[in-house]
Amino acid sequence: MTERPEDEQRDVEQEAPGQEPAAEGETAAPAPVAEEQPEPGVPAPVAEEQPEPAVPAPVAEEQPEPAVPAPVAEEQPEPAVPGPAAPEPTAGQPPAAGDGAEVRIEARQSPAEDEELVEDEELEVAPREKPEIPGADLIPDIVPEGEQFLDAEAQAAAEAEAEAEAARRREEVDEDEARPIADAAIDLAAGARYTATGKRKTAVARVIVKPGTGTYLINGKTLETFFPRETLRRVIRQPLETVGYESRMDVVARMHGGGVSAQAGALRHGISRALIVADPNLRGELKRRGFLTRDPRVKERKKAGLKKARKRPQFSKR
């Protein structure tokens, strides 16, 4: 069984009446010590009747480091709990010394806490203000080559120059396409005949190219009669103009199917294939200009339930 501080105080009260004169003479000096460190829950007259208060004084002086009981006092703030921590009967006032130590520790820690608060206040930075226009305060540090910050007039001039350059390049391409192939070598013997078939959409043209004066005979009609549009006639003349034989070869063709535009495309396709038969070395140049490519674009078939290939009847909810 462990003794409680209350039992010790009762034993001291029972022994105190026989030693009153000695207590009065001896307690004159340590009286202020009892007043400076009062214990909670202990009455004041008991502290005056204690016969030997000088014994714990040296114990308190011999323990210069009161940090050991301090955590016990913090974990158990109740006044009755620190009593069992000192089992010795003479250690009646060490908890008071511990309380004083706690006060001193708190006094030592308080300046540090103040410093931490000051540092926290100093670390607080004012929030960044949002600009009216996002990114207005940023300056681009990388500018692509050839791009500069220009005003409206300079930008318009640059655009006009770019358009002129594009037009000049298109003209050069057109001139290059119109320029005849210099290395064309076609046999122009009297009995030479070169046949081929050209197609476009549903039109089919069976073409015969032979040496002549540059005349076109299509289904027994001249070129101007069969194709009244100048654009279509220009399309038909392109293959022979490319190779430079537009005035030294005649074209005879039989055509059926399709419309005038499809028939013109089919005739050009047939003439180009006939020139490949006459000189295979012309294939690369004619292919580059697109004369040998069969145009796959045709009319899309009608679908069931629709008016045309894609057109649907008007929707009726009821």
Description:
It is built from 13 helices and five strands. The protein has helices at 5-15, 20-26, 31-36, 44-49, 56-62, 69-75, 82-85, 94-123, 152-178, 223-226, 230-243, 260-278, 283-288, and strands spanning 194-200, 203-211, 216-218, 221-222, 249-256. A five-stranded mixed β-sheet has the order 1-2-5-3-4. It is elongated and about 155 Å long. The two termini are 100 Å apart. The model is unreliable at 18-36, 40-49, 53-64, 66-77, 79-87 and 89-108 (pLDDT under 50).
Features:
single chain; 318 residues; alpha+beta; Ribosomal Protein S5, domain 2; 5-stranded mixed β-sheet; 13 helices
Would you list the SSEs in sequence order as H and E? HHHHHHHHHEEEEHHEHH
From the spread of the alpha carbons, the general shape counts as elongated
Rg, Cα atoms, Å:
59 Å
> Please, how many helices?
13
Give the strand content: 5-15%
CATH topology of the domain at 194-288, which one?
Answer: Ribosomal Protein S5, domain 2
Indicate the CATH class of the domain at 194-288.
Alpha Beta
Largest sheet: 5 strands, mixed
> Which secondary-structure class do the elements indicate?
alpha+beta
Mean pLDDT reading: 73
Can you tell me the residue ranges where pLDDT is under 50 for at least 5 consecutive residues? 18-36, 40-49, 53-64, 66-77, 79-87, 89-108
If classified by CATH, what would the architecture of the domain at 194-288 be?
Answer: 2-Layer Sandwich
For the termini, the CA-CA separation is 100 Å
Percentage of helical residues? Answer: 40-55%
Strands, total number: 5
